[in-house]
Amino acid sequence: MSTQVHTLQTLALRKEYPGTVALNDVTVSFTGGQVHALIGKNGAGKSTLVKLIAGAIEPTGGSILVDAREVQLQSPQDALQRGIVAVHQELSLVPELTVAENILLGRLPKKPGFGRSIIDWRQVYTRAEHVLAGLGVSIDVRARAGTLGVAQQQSVEIAKAMSYEPSILILDEPTSALAQHETQRLFDLLRMLAARGVVLLYITHRLQELREIADTVTVLRNGLLVGTIGIAEANPSTIVHMMFGEVVQRVRPADLSARTEPFVEVQSFSRQGAFTDINFTVNKGEILGIAGLLGSGRTELLRGMFGADPPDTGELIIGGERITPSDPQQMKDLGVVLTPENRKDQGLVQLLNTRINLCLASLNRLSSHGFITQAREQSSVDRNIRELDIKVANTEAPVAFLSGGNQQKVVVGKWLNTSPRLVLFDEPTRGIDIQAKQQIFQIIWDLSKRGISCIVVSSELEELLDICHRILIMRQGRIVTDVRPGEISLENLFAVCMKEEV
Amino acid sequence: MNVPPRLQSLFSHGILESILVLLCILLAFTASGFLTADNLLNVLRNVSMQGVIAFGMTMVIISGEIDLSVGSAVAFAGCLTAFLTLKLTGDWFMLPLPLAIAVSILVTLAVGFAVGTFTGFMRNRYQVPSFITTLALMTGLSGAAELITNGFPLTPFPAWYNFIGGGYLLGIPFPALLFLLTFAILQFLMNYTSFGRSVYAVGGNAEAARLSGINVKRVKTMVFGITAFLAALSGVMVSSEIMSGTATTAKGWELDIIAAVIIGGTSFMGGVGRIWGTMIGVVFLGVIMNGMTLLNVSEYWQHVVRGAIILVAVLLNLLQKGRAGR
User: Fold this and answer.
1) In the CATH hierarchy, which top-level class contains the domain A249-335+420-502?
2) pTM for this structure?
3) Beta-carbon contacts below 8 Å between A and B
4) Are B48 and B41 in contact (CB under 8 A)?
5) Is the Cβ pair B210, A352 closer than 8 Å?
6) How far apart are the first and last CA of chain B?
7) CA distance, residue B214 to nearest chain A CA (Å)
8) Rounded CA gap, A177 and A170, in Å?
9) ipTM of model
10) Which of A352, A373, A418 sits opposite B204 (nearest CB)?
11) Per residue in A93-114, pLDDT tens?
């Protein structure tokens, strides 16, 4: 392996999807020998940038330069040939194959003879051992990948990446599954690679790691490059400011006040591996935010309350009645409904049209003795479209044709038709434009005024500060504290979620 | 998307119908005896026994499942009706024949429904794919039919029993009337009831349906139950037509039925399909077969042609979908 110092540059790199610009003319350069952290909120454009560099998607405009030469990357194979290797957040090992097979997958060395169609197993194992030894890790190359721990699997992933002898290595949140000492070993590995001149691009949401491993910090926001700073200048408040920008206070209705009458009490909710001993109360008409990082258990908690993934233990007290959530149908009948995080796959039936999707949860109300007619549905559909301002040309066309914001409104409308009393919103504004976001906020505020309680989970902390009466903060499956929007700054809220003092 | 919805819908729904009409016109000129009332009613009678099941199969496939057991269920149901009739008129019960037949038919239909709910139970409770459960049932029911008949046709039926499968009412074959009635009921069920909506939703995206508070398990159980019930009905019709309970009838019907459903535009991926489309698919296959027989095409060629039709119909459907998605 050479010790040439490699470079990676992008020039006005751009990626558009219908209706959105995922990456907006980003010009940035990374040099070998250093670890470059890439940070930004969800949807800031990090993964788009990584996918473009790794050849998984093609740019709409701009160019990518490796070692100062422009490259055309039309597939991941193209990228691999140029020495660009990405290790994605989700492990991609084949659990039934051995470590060695995984490392050399698709490139197993062959024996001469029979048209080189017979695998040379001795070669396979020695080469895999060689790669692992080069990284200073000792793992049995004959073990099946599925039997390894997460950290070891991570090492195998990196070994696999290294076996391509990359000049550019991209790691997407590699530490999210690792324990502290395992993270340390990964960092040692990265520093060793950097010393060989490899360009290291490191995506993370753990700000406390930056100081330990990164040499530069590059921040993206809304598809734009905010800037690159050296690690010395990167104190947490600067970074939070770069990530979130000037926060625009949204038009919040003045008369938004929660009643003090409790509506739902959550009592000692626990589910193995998701959340532990959760207790809180939602008042009638209250908008309660839940803040926390990905994997803090916030989505799981909402799904638990809705009965989608019932909790192992714990109860809800709704209007004095003790309930053990067991399935969504039961919770719907009790007036507890969920707009799921993944609206495309869980909120809507994409094959069906807008009318049917809007009526999907309220079939019992719309039908008489099980019979349903389009005329009966139409009046309710028309009301949804009017009240939620859904932009739909033809309610008989598949809901898949609608924009993200309008699809989200269809999900909300679907539930409003069931006369809910508590609406659980999981990432209600993900991937929708600013105007639609404001409309979703307005819908939540209107629900609150009508005495309907809302729980909002969002990665957009500034949104929670804008729309909620109260915010619970979750970390590692537990509620650590609750705050009121007027009493905490965005930086502090972020720091509490991260468990870090600003 | 600039095409007006009405025109678009005509375009995407009308192709098979148009081809069927063209085919009929062509046969009217080339095959002597095709365009006569007797022959057309005959076509309808010929398709009716597979046809009643095809409507149920449409629901099963729309809901994202499959049922391979319907052919064996037909044979089993026919044998069970004959077997029960024998037993009920025998020494132990000594029921009068008409009553014995009525009870036998009702019990057979109920057993059919129960067999379907069993498939649903295996699917819901143990996540056994319906392909596997119904494959097992296909063999099992066929064996059960042989067991209760000892491998020989049972013939306990009086001459009037032939009415169900071979009689005429107002000049129309009675089985064809049952076929049309089944069509009307399932057409209504799928288009004008909340149950029908749920079937489409479950097949389109079971998780989204579950998270909309739809009882996915009950929907699947009902869909299998209705289909197996219709297979049992078909079995009664067949036993009436051939005047016996015979274990070797209806072999391979499941594939003919699935073919008709697919030709009718129902997607194997679930969530998409129409009862009306299946009606067209069933009639289409019936007309082709009838026409080729009238034209003295050899039976071997008929099979080849039928295979080709299945492929072409599916391709047409996919091409249309591709265009509609633009």
Assistant:
1) alpha beta
2) 0.80
3) 86
4) no
5) no
6) 7
7) 6
8) 17
9) 0.84
10) A352
11) 898 999 999 999 888 888 877 7
